[in-house]
Amino acid sequence: MSNPLADMDKPDVIFCIGTNMTECHPVAATRLKRALARGAKMIVADPRRIGLAEIADVHLPLRVGSDVSLLLAMAHVIAREGLMDQAFIDARTTQGEDFMEHVAQYTPEWAAEICECDPADIEKAALLYGGADRGAIYYTVGITEHICGVDNVQSLCNLALMTGNLGREGTGVNPMRGQNNIQGAGDAGALPNNYPGFQAVTVPAHQEKFHEAYGRKVDLATGMTKVTALDLCGDGIHAMIINGENTLVTDPDRHHCEHALKSLDCLVVIDIFMTDTAKVADVVFPATAWAETDGVCTNTERRVQRLRAAVPPPGEAKPDWWIVSRLAQRMGWKGFEFESAKEVFNELCSLSPLYAGLDWDRIDRGEYQWPVPTRDHPGTPRLHEEGFENGRGIFKMLEYRDPEETLSDEYPMWLTTGRRLPQYHTRTQTGRSGGIDYLLSEETLEVHPDDIARLGLVDGGWAELSNPRGCLHVKVRATAKSPKGTVFASFAFEDVPVNVLTGGGYDPVTQTAALKACPVALKPVGPPLALGQVGVGARGF
Amino acid sequence: MKRNGTPSTNGKGVQLTMTLDGEKVAFTRGETVYEVAERHQKEIPTLCYDPRLEPFGGCRLCIVELEGARNPVASCTMKAEPGMRVRTRTAALEVQRRILMEMVASENRDTDVDPMHGYASQEMAELLDRYDARTGRFEGALSGESRPDDDNPFIKRDYENCISCYRCVRVCAEQEGDYAISVMNRGFHTQITTEFGGLLKDSACTFCGQCIQTCPTGALGDLKALANKDVPGETETTRTICPYCGVGCTVDVMTRGEKIVGVLPAMDGPANEGALCVKGQFAFDFVGHPDRLATPFIREEKSGQLRPASWDEALDFAAGKLRKVVKDHGRRAIYGIASGRAPHEAAYMMQRFIRAGLGTNHIDNCSRA
Amino acid sequence: MAEPGNDTLVEHWKDEPAPLLPLLHAFHERDGYLSEEALRAVSRGLRIPIADLFGTVTFYHHFSRDAAGLDRPRVCNGPVCSMRGAEVLLASLRAAGHDPMTMPCPGRCDEPVPVIHRGTVLTGRTAGTLVSGPSPLPPVPPDGVEECVFAGIRAPGRPTLAGYRSQGGYEALEQAVTGMTPAEVVDVIDASGLAGRGGAGFPTGRKWRAVADAPGEPKTIVCNADEGEPGCFKDRVLMDHDPHGTIEGMALAAYATGAVRGFIYLRYEYPETCDILEGAIAAAAAAGLLGDGILGTDFRFDLMVRRGAGAYICGEETSLLNSLEGGHPFPRNRPPFPVTHGYENLPTVVNNVETLASAPPILVHGAEWYRGLGRADHAGTKVISLSGDIARPGNYEVPIGLPLRELLHGWAGGPPGGRAVQAVTMAGLSGGFLAGADLDVTLDEPSIRSKGSFLGAGGIMVFDDSRDMIRVTRESMEFFAEESCGKCFPCRIGTQRLVERLEGQGPRAVDAWVDEVVDLNEVMKKTSACGLGQAAPLLTESLIRYFPDRVRAHVEKG
Ligand SMILES: Cc1cc2nc3c(=O)[nH]c(=O)nc-3n(C[C@H](O)[C@H](O)[C@H](O)COP(=O)(O)O)c2cc1C
Ligand code: SF4
Ligand code: SF4
Ligand code: SF4
Ligand code: FES
Ligand code: FES
Fold first, then answer.
1. Cross-chain CB nearest to C486 (options B79, B187, B197)
2. B17-89, what's its fold?
């Protein structure tokens, strides 16, 4: 997030797009609700009538995957009405003029054809955001899990740049991170293109630095992404070490993934449970879990916080860092003689400019938000206050692209996926915590009542959901939360593995999977298929 | 949020001051008398007060004597004004507070509840002790109807111990923004309720547990923690961060011996300021679950099955296999996937393994899924 | 005509000012109760969380949540009516096939026993003899007594605009808007010594000035016509027989303070009054006396009636404001006061009907005239609602400072049947009792306060020497317990404990009993958050003071 969580009750206008915050980041959503109680206005762009939409001033029920068109049209209205922050544009951005020209063609009427929103609502939303003194944008995977994920984010940045809604209290372009330490995994360098601290591997000075630190020359080329690696399993990639991820169930394309992992010579899995992924491994190492592990994590607002062990682990389970470092030792490598999490974290701090002012003891109370470049630095709750890292903010001339897969007569409905409040991810944790299943014990497919009637489905009955990648059976629930023509399911329950269906394409830049838009066919069926009978279709469209 | 500001001036450079128990003290514009007194360790008793919520003025325990006012005033709702002269503890006030506590005790079935009920559950009992108010005076009807019919596994709704402070209702609205519960009827017959008096699961409740944690009597209780109330040992707490989403809420994990017995929100957690959601509050017992892996496993060549192994054996086995891959296919044939749910040290070590060990950049994390 | 659908009703009200109560009434009257479906429609339309709306609806006595609940006749069981056969009436209604429920005093104590049935007030002693009719006019005062608010009220045609104008009505408004500055209007009211007639007695001129001076627009005038105090029925008579007097008073207040909108918050129990007021407002608006461009000037004032739904606490001004705004009607914490943070947190005058109705005559006749209406040093008049064991019950506008005994015996004929006055209540019920030598008091606030009571809104109920004062106190305390809003501990618990002790529960030794009751009294008086809880213990306090032997007998009898 560019801005701290504490800023979330400060905007005049909140623009939430592709984030079901009340279910995925409930505690952050409470701050938005407080802003609303104080009189702030809220725009919610989401295909579904999610919880936030219920309390919004404008709900834009856009067609899945059409975000760019909507955002271009909003930029159009803001430009047309002269609601830009010209001083900001002049002082801190480049290509502003070109951008205003570029968006002149993208009227709300044009966008309405694509995103299926009322042009008057698009206009209203644009006027609200454009007219705000403090406008803040929040988004989650609803924006990034598309083939055009990067374009979506860029479009949001364009809006913020043109209205000067960056670098001030209650503004910003704020992604909400989905997992407790997904930010930290990046901070720590678990990326093919960056060393710890987002230092690009392609920059000679960085290579120099790590060569020295690690005593070994590292490839000059960027590594491959996980998506590519899975594609190349058995053909270039022959071993994987997977830590704490149930890849098989969370991967956008289950069959493909299963096939990939099975074609490895060696799969090492480090986890706390015998997940589906662990079951196909050659070696499984038992890791300590949350509340058994000392360590550090970074939250969505870049706050670096301590995790502390409260209970001993079961049996012989060990911290992940211990396992990997001991494995490295067995590989015969030097320099892995770490004895504590503290030692590991302090080495990270010494190598990451973002953490240069931190160490294990200093983060004890969690008051630092990175970057913390020096010992006397107070941390950075808000990014871009003084300026942008790379000089000026650059407007991007984007154009709308159709999703890789579009609706057809055969597959006439959009399937979109997401999370639900009580269950987390694939339920490895929540499913094993007493009581959570009381709130949500099975997956259901959310279908608009009109679609239910039209397709001859029954509320509470079963439906078959299929596309060329696969098919599954799921219980149907009638709800006006889903727009007509779009159905929703989460990936929480293993008996409804929606990732047998998803997987149609990746963002070409980040290779984030298009989990949010996938054409399917839907029809009523009798009793459910037993687990394991889940059908496999011919691959590819 | 608590507005414990530093003393401010009236805009003309003159510091704002008032007199508190005879002592001249500075305050910030907007501070309440209670907040000023708090800063000066006056220990004014309260029951309907939660520093995160708008002051309500219901329990009247926080009364103080204000010069010029006919009656004592509630300090939690009274803004400090320059020149105010306030006394926080006089014989008369202490008598009134004691009577109020005797009255409070008279309407509840129990005046002592297990601390496992929740964060604030001992507040009433502590004040009853402080005011020696367990006298049995003012005996009469009990107020509130419990809801044993609510079968939710998280929140005990034992309203026979409710004192109508409405902290639960206010925390649900002001802090959580869920508006799941409210006050029905009036006077002695007020009752905390959901819409149309139904079960929590049929209401807007998200089971965040905030109401439990602010309840000063244990009328609301954390059923998951209470299930552990007989686990032997002293309850200890360890401060850490919730394992679920990226908000990073601070929690205090309660343990007895080697068992996690519950979770408390950290009121001073920088990201959450005391708030939690159903997962952070209640989904903790996967940790001690019998399904947890307790030893390494390796796949036996012959049977093709995974079997338990010692660390030595498993590490050697894995290293052997990996070395073979390097030998057969080169060091670029190994790929590492770090976790977005393990600590920094895990991700750091994984990339170190790949970079310092193999000299490649074949490392990623699971954020792309 | 087809009944309007849910959406039609919601659409009709949702953008109106203070829409919740009228919308709920619309559903209540359409369906005969408030169904779950209706509440959900309201919740969506007005964006009030459903749990809050549900809780708030249950707060009001007269909203029914059961099908056909509105059909149940509501019978007064107030202190006067319970002496006059409320039980008999209830029984006869049951015998006639009704399912009656009780209600607290609906302000008809001069004509016991009132019943409200589907928007009509009936009075009588048995099911078969119930009749509806206008509220009684005030009795004519003794010769030589000059009145202020009642001066023209008995004239035929007075409720109509023409009748009102024929007696000089709206001249005060005309005089003000065409010839005086707002500050001059405030000065006159200030100089007259007029103080609030709703109970608290705050100087009206000072209140208006505070609102005039307060920052924030738009400002609002609220006429407090909730008259929930048992034994008070003066505001009803003023509005029924002289509606334009109140309307003109509100317009004057608006002009004086710069307010542009006004509400009359009318208690549910006055359905006929609602029609009268709405008719009068429409007539005044049509004549250019309300709305835009009043009397050809650019003064603008919009006036609306909002009906309560049965909650005594909604007469407390901050609770009233919460009720108007659609919130839960708990009183607010003060400061800040309504003069700066009133309706929608903006400057607001809240004045009682009688207070507002006093303004036009004061403006016409001058401050000096008004001051001179009182006896001795006291300024002005006060309407007293007199009921109970008294020969001629009714509303009397007395000079402030009139001896109580002169009113009781001289003006109203004393208790019937030659009985003696055992006790009277003050301020309706809120002032507790006066008895014995303390009946020799003059009707002015300082004198009555010196006896540990107060004049308040001016309701006086008379109990002759045949009445059981324990029973009277218990029934009165039940009222406060029933009406306690539940916000603050001393009142919520205290009223209940006092009722229990008056019912015969609690300690069986007099000393212990008195100890507990005195402690409850003290704590309630000193620490309650609003006037209800502070006033309720005056009943038990005066009971113990005047009737110690009765108390002893009550406690020891067991
Ligand atoms: C419990 C309670 C009930 C009240 N009920 C009424 C009422 O019914 N009518 C009224 O005018 N004032 C009532 N008041 C007084 C109001 O709070 C307020 O003082 C009054 O409306 C101000 O108008 P005034 O200054 O013209 O009297 C009540 C006060 C309390 C504490
Ligand atoms: S658990 Fe949370 S949402 Fe549910 S009633 Fe309590 S505070 Fe409200
Ligand atoms: S349940 Fe607890 S928090 Fe809620 S009103 Fe009762 S005592 Fe207060
Ligand atoms: S004194 Fe009684 S009526 Fe007034 S706020 Fe307290 S509980 Fe409510
Ligand atoms: S703490 Fe102030 S009234 Fe309860
Ligand atoms: S009308 Fe019955 S007591 Fe007033």
1. B187
2. Ubiquitin-like (UB roll) (3.10.20)
pLDDT score of C1: 55
Nearest CA to ligand 5 atom 1: B46
Read off the CATH number of the domain in which C392 is found.
3.10.20.600
> Smallest Cβ distance to C486: which of B99, B164, B180?
B164
Is the bond into A371 cis (omega within 30 degrees of 0)? Answer: yes
Q: Is the CB of C453 under 6 A from ligand 4?
A: no
Tell me if the domain spanning B230-292 has CATH number 2.20.25.90: yes
- Please write the tens of the pLDDT for every residue from A168-187: 889 988 888 878 888 888 89
- Residue B135: the pLDDT is 96
Q: Could you tell me where the beta strands, DSSP code E, fall in C113-254?
A: 114-117, 120-123, 131-132, 219-225
pLDDT in tens, B117-147: 999 999 999 999 999 999 999 999 999 999 9
State the residue for tokens 């001393």. C490
Query: Min CA distance, B283 vs chain A (Å)?
Result: 5
Residue C474 within any structural domain of the chain: yes
Question: How many Cβ atoms are within 10 Å of C416's Cβ, its own excluded?
Answer: 11
Classify residue C292: in a domain, yes or no: yes
Q: Report the run of H or E that residue C306 belongs to, with start and end.
A: strand C302-307
What is the β-pairing status of strands A41-45 and A58-60? parallel
Q: What is the pLDDT of residues A242-282, one digit of tens each?
A: 998 888 777 777 788 888 999 999 999 999 999 989 999 99
AA letter at B144: G
Domain count, chain C: 5
B175–A30 CB contact, under 8 Å:
yes
Same domain? C214 vs C275 = yes
| pLDDT tens digits for range A451-488 | 999 988 888 888 888 888 888 888 999 998 888 888 98
| Residue A510 Cα distances to A144, A506, B366, angstroms | 9, 8, 12
Closest residue in B to A226 (Cα) is: B364
pTM metric for this prediction: 0.93
Tell me which ligand sits closest to the C-alpha of residue C528. 4
Distance from CA of C528 to the nearest CA of B (A): 7
* Chain A residue with minimum CA distance to B366: A245
Q: Which CATH number fits domain B108-227: 3.30.70.20, 3.30.465.10, 3.40.47.10, 3.40.50.720?
A: 3.30.70.20
Helix/strand/coil for C402 = coil
Q: Classify residue C12 as exposed, middle or buried by CB count within 10 Å of its CB (0-12, 13-18, 19+).
A: middle
Domain that holds residue C423: 381-464
Cα(C487)–Cα(C491) distance, integer angstroms: 8
CATH 2.20.25.90 domain extents, chain B = 230-292
